[in-house]
Amino acid sequence: MVRKRFPQAVVETVEFRGEQTLVLVPEQLAAVCAYLQKQHQYTFLSSVTAVDWLERVPRYDVVYHLLSMPRRSELRLKVRVGRRREEHPSVPTVAGVWPGANWYEREVYDLFGITFAGHPDLRRILMPNDWTTYPLRKDYPLTGFDLPEPHWGGQVPYDSDPGVGSQTLRTSDGRELNESRSKVSQVQEPGTEK
Question: Model pTM greater than 0.85?
Answer without folding.
Answer: no
